[in-house]
Design brief:
The strands form 4 sheets. Strands 8, 10, 11, 12, 14, 15, 18 and 20 form an 8-stranded antiparallel β-sheet that branches. The protein has a 5-stranded mixed β-sheet with strand order 5-4-3-6-7. The chain folds into 2 domains: 112 residues, Glutaredoxin (3-Layer(aba) Sandwich); 202 residues, q2cbj1_9rhob like domain (Jelly Rolls). Strand 3, helix 2 and strand 4 form a beta-alpha-beta unit. With 340 residues, the chain is of the alpha+beta class.
Length: 340
């Protein structure tokens, strides 16, 4: 069963004309839905459903029997012997609509056509800007739920400041202002975050960067206060030997009630990056990155560093987990089911 926030698998089969079908080709950046029909609908039923589907959306109809599908670019039809239905419905009966966003991540599940087709982009591509340079970063909304964000902020408020002695000496670190950093030591919350990140984020990193994350450093929580113009200077996170394993950095935003504090990658231009609360920003550890001053409120983030190869024991930091050995093993504290 696929839950909201998780990426759909690439459904592969043959359409009603016997031609090869792939969901990842059919969608190609469109929002859409999978319509799992318990019984084969009539052509009129399909046309009525399409009345509620915008032109920029796509619907994959999975039906148990043959259907004369209407000539409409919005719909694709494949027959199913019950295997796909059992995998996606988890024993439910009746019709099921599974809506997905441009990243093929599930946004909702329900028995009827979605009443709202959410999109991150303006469907009118005439308003799109021409980009000459942009940082190669991944931004995704809806990774952490609001309850997790609130719990992390609460944990940060009561935790002691990070002891600088627990970190390797780094003469190339950022110059920080108005910054407070703590380490998450709540094991139950850590396990919950591990499961969410494993299901919702790591498949997206593999999809965007062709990189299989196998481990990550301890979870840090940071705050940058506008009272001190909180932020930090441009720097790279993997310049010293103890940090060279850091293939990617993960910044998850925990709140929206602040201004300023955008992330900038100066090597690629002046674009300012900001994701909504619960969203994440993932970027290569080799990129120069800075945070502009927070001008109002306090910005809270969850931060960690992701990697693949085992870290030499002498270089491990407290709380750091070595990568498991062999094949498609899950990272520390990550159940194998999260990596299917």
């Amino acid at each position: 069963m696929i839950h909201p926030g998780e990426r759909l698998p690439n459904i592969v089969g043959s359409d009603q004309a016997g031609q090869p079908f792939m969901l990842y080709h059919f969608s190609c950046g469109s929002v859409g839905a999978i319509w799992l029909a318990e019984n084969t609908p009539s052509t009129d039923d399909v046309m009525q459903a399409l009345d509620n589907v915008p032109a920029h959306a796509r619907v994959l109809l999975v039906t148990p029997g043959p259907l004369q599908a209407p000539e409409d670019d919005r719909i694709g039809v494949i027959a199913d012997d019950g295997t796909l239905r059992s995998q996606l419905m988890d024993g439910d009966s009746g019709d099921l609509w599974i809506a997905f966003d441009e990243h093929l991540r599930v946004t909702r599940r329900g028995p009827s056509v979605p009443d709202a087709w959410t999109t991150r982009w303006n469907a009118d591509d005439s308003q799109a800007s021409i980009v000459q340079s942009v940082a190669p970063v991944l931004t995704l909304p809806r990774i952490l739920d609001a309850e997790i964000c609130d719990a992390l902020i609460e944990a940060h408020a009561s935790a002691p400041d990070l002891d600088p002695a627990s970190e390797p000496f780094n003469p190339f670190g950022p110059v920080a202002r108005g910054r407070r950093e703590t380490v998450l030591d709540d094991q139950a919350l850590t396990r919950q975050i591990n499961q969410v990140v494993g299901k919702r984020l790591l498949p997206e990193i593999a999809f965007a960067f062709a990189y299989g994350v196998q481990a990550f450093e301890r979870i840090r929580i940071t705050s940058h206060d506008s009272a001190e113009e909180g932020g930090y200077s441009a720097h790279r996170i993997n310049l010293i030997p103890d940090n060279r394993h850091r293939a990617f950095a993960l910044i998850a935003s925990l709140n929206d009630d602040y201004e300023g504090g955008e992330i900038v990658f100066p090597e690629f231009g002046p674009q300012r990056f900001r994701v909504p609360a619960g969203g994440v920003l993932v970027y290569s550890g080799s990129l120069a990155q800075q945070m502009l001053p927070v001008t109002s409120g306090v910005r809270y983030d969850m931060v960690s560093y992701l990697f693949q190869e085992p870290v030499q024991q002498a270089a491990q930091q407290p709380g750091q987990q070595p990568a498991p050995q062999g094949g498609q093993q899950p990272p520390p504290n990550m159940p194998p089911a999260n990596w299917s």
